[in-house]
């Protein structure tokens, strides 16, 4: 096999055929004896969830993950937080001419492993090659299809006193990726939290009642995602700064460089809003999973003022938080 | 609104929010009051078709279409040739910093128009922004979900004498795009055939029986797609050069530059293999549609030799055709 991707790998001819056969089919398996334009799948229900995400992360390999692992976990998580059980993924690659095929193999292996772990099947793919300088290595789109399960789901009916839970430490992904770029001039022993959360989130949906909403705080971080929930449902959300789990190393880098962990990207965390009655049970279940071991209740819902996110500082002051504004970091996912 | 895309349009914060609201939601409509991580859709059946495609075409606007029109029609066609009725699309954008927002609006409008024409709904989207020089304008992934209809479909059961039909002139897209780049040093009055074929293909599936397979000859052209069918199903396919519809202008450019129209990309053509008995009826129906007005029977299936595509030349010689090998043209779709 060739060592580098050439434009001919994207022309739909002989080399494209071999690339698909030797790299993709061998990693993802070939459900049909023949590869058609569209994959036929049978769903367990008529009500399904669909999501799409493109991944342009730089660097493509980083502590705790790769663009391949992220492309699967990220889309799996978008389905899982919507309350659906992830079932199928498609993947579309845009590859720069000259990209090492050994790296492509690593990425595809990471995708296959993460798909296996989260129980999803990759059913369709596409590869395009662009000239040197027209992309930066590889970009991957994954689109996910999930199944809504009867009797399980998020109610979207909020009440005063509902608890806001985060499933673990925030900002790990942001700091891991930024330090991996080598542009900050510092190193930090922080791994990305990149992980599929579907099994953990299915457990809390199955074993508790009273889940109001789940979201994954990726780009824009915890604060931006909570602002979106507050605005979309006209809620006032109060969070306590001291209750938010942040790794010491992440705090350290943030202090040094003036970043706010509340706005750093996460790729293996969920925000869960649940009735006050069930909050402890949810935390207890989350902590049984390695991805949820640092889960914590960080705040609650009040309806005093509409559509606002308020942060209570250690000194008791309340600060109004807004969406991330102005780029902190491009290509974080 | 801003004039150019900046990195902040991709950071998941305030500018991303406004871009989605002002460009995408306003064009595609917002099915849910709130934009979630995943769109909930209800399918008419449990058996669905899924396909994905990334579009990196250069230039993004060309005679007869744009990357937006193509991104919808291309994926609609992949579903339609599989025998499914296209229902939902997702779209993922990778945009280069500095890209004019006016162009993005044009692209999104083209997508909305083509979606309306083909009867599909765009249900989920994603936007990533990469630094100047890390992409060439804009790349779009679309993933399509279609519904298999009971009693309608392709049998995949081939017999000697089955007819090979092409729904119109070949090579139009390839020549339109290549001349639009201005690199050939010539101009040609050829429009891309870029179009959604689902309504036309549904008509032949509904009104005839005996359709064996349908495929769209995009990258790699008519010859590559027929070689794939021949190999996948171990058929010998015979086609007659004089029967293949090619526009005079396309012939002209090919003769001048040494291209073979059999290997040029098409974006609004289908290959249909049908029983000998039904072939005339299929052509008759195809010709009722503007996209099918030049439909023609170009060959037939024999089982004398397995897995081969043979071209009968005007002088009666038979030439063995293989897949496209070596890049003719990158970024044709």
Account of the 3D structure:
The structure is a homodimer of 333-residue chains. Helices cover 29% and strands 26% of the residues of chain A. With 333 residues, the first copy, chain A, is an alpha+beta fold. Chain A folds into two domains: 7-148, 60s Ribosomal Protein L30, Chain: A (2-Layer Sandwich), CATH 3.30.1330.10; 163-321, PurM-like C-terminal domain (Phosphoribosyl-aminoimidazole Synthetase, Chain A, domain 2, Alpha-Beta Complex). A seven-stranded mixed β-sheet of chain A has the order 9-11-8-12-10-13-14, with helices on both faces. In chain A, strand 3 and strand 4 (65-66) form a beta hairpin. In chain A, helix 2 (67-81) packs parallel to helix 3 and helix 2 runs parallel beside helix 5. Chains A and B meet through helix 1, strand 1, strand 2, helix 2 and strand 5 of A and helix 1, strand 1, strand 2, helix 2 and strand 5 of B.
Summarize the structure.
With 333 residues, chain A is α+β, with helices and mostly antiparallel strands. Helix content of chain A is 29%, strand content 26%.
Keywords:
homodimer, 333 residues, alpha+beta, Phosphoribosyl-aminoimidazole Synthetase, Chain A, domain 2, 2 domains, 7-stranded mixed sheet, globular
Q: Could you give the order of the helices and strands of chain A? A: HEEEEHEHEEEHHEHEHEHEEE
Biggest chain pair interface: A-B, 90 and 90 residues
Q: Briefly, what CATH class of the largest domain in chain A? A: Alpha Beta
User: Which of globular, elongated, flat, extended, rod-shaped describes the shape of chain A?
Assistant: globular
- The CATH superfamily of the largest domain in chain A is identified as PurM-like C-terminal domain
Overall pLDDT level of chain A: 92
Radius of gyration of chain A, CA atoms, in whole angstroms: 21 Å
Alpha-beta content class of chain A: alpha+beta
Q: Give me the CATH architecture of the largest domain in chain A, please.
A: Alpha-Beta Complex
